[in-house]
Amino acid sequence: MPKFAANLSFLFTDHIFRERFRLAAAAGFQGVEYLFPYDWPASEVAEWLKAADVEQVLFNLPPGDWANGERGLACLPDRQGEFAEGVEQALNYAMVLDCQRVHCMAGLRPWAVAEAELEAVYVANLRHAADRFATIGATVMVEPINSRIDMPGYWLDGIDKALRLIESIDRSNVKLQLDLYHAQIIQGDLARTIEENIAQIGHVQIADNPGRHEPGTGEINYPFLFSVLDRLGYAGWIGCEYKPLATTEEGLGWMPK
Ligand SMILES: O=C(O)C(=O)[C@H](O)CO
Ligand SMILES: [Mg+2]
């Protein structure tokens, strides 16, 4: 049975951030992930993890100006200095939090820039991030996000595109973050997508579609997909990145015991 991590940017959001670690542990999660830790000193977050006895599974590199709509920097030609600074900041947090995975968001497509240039910048940035995170044995995740419903304009919005870029980046610590909710919207065919790419998958995230709520509230057959992951020997984490329909605790009935 896969290991489930609570995404604290989505779950337990009726409580302040630091409380969510304890609530996740009480609900049976052994790992947590979330978007960004940078509003809090790394040492404080480390204390919350320790007090709750949960593992830090994943967080994201700094995404640029999130409040003003930015969604990552990795493909943006005029932001490479800021990207590299973000890598150092995230590396420090990863060390203190003992975290082995970070997600690097690609950014929104700047329409005036040619695709070949965006790809070249993205590949160079990901190689840099991969080499820096290799120094602590951590993996950099590449996640295709649907640009139709949730993140209009997101540049990295195809599974095949992500796989092709991972091949070009050519670093063993760059892996696919397969968010099955986005994958369902992007292309469907989820079991085959998992099976064909299992060697590249470093992290999985889940939510049902439509609505991005708990597994079991929509069209995705999660019990079947969990059995596919088990059969293929997936030993990584599954991040619960969904919006609970009511409270998080009330919506945990889908989770296999
Ligand atoms: O949106 C998602 O699915 C993510 O996993 C990103 O980390 C951030 O938006
Ligand atoms: Mg995701």
TrEMBL record:
One of its GO terms (molecular function) is hydroxypyruvate isomerase activity. Residues 21-256 form the Xylose isomerase-like TIM barrel domain. Transmembrane segments: none annotated. Keywords: Isomerase. Its EC number is 5.3.1.22. It holds the Pfam family AP_endonuc_2. InterPro entries: HPT_OtnI_isomerases, Hydroxypyruvate_isomerase, HyI-like, Sugar_Epim/Isomerase, Xyl_isomerase-like_sf, Xyl_isomerase-like_TIM-brl. The keyword Isomerase applies. Belongs to the hyi family. NCBIfam families: OH-pyruv-isom, OxoTetrIsom. This is Hydroxypyruvate isomerase. It comes from Dechloromonas hankyongensis. The lineage of its organism: Bacteria, Pseudomonadati, Pseudomonadota, Betaproteobacteria, Rhodocyclales.
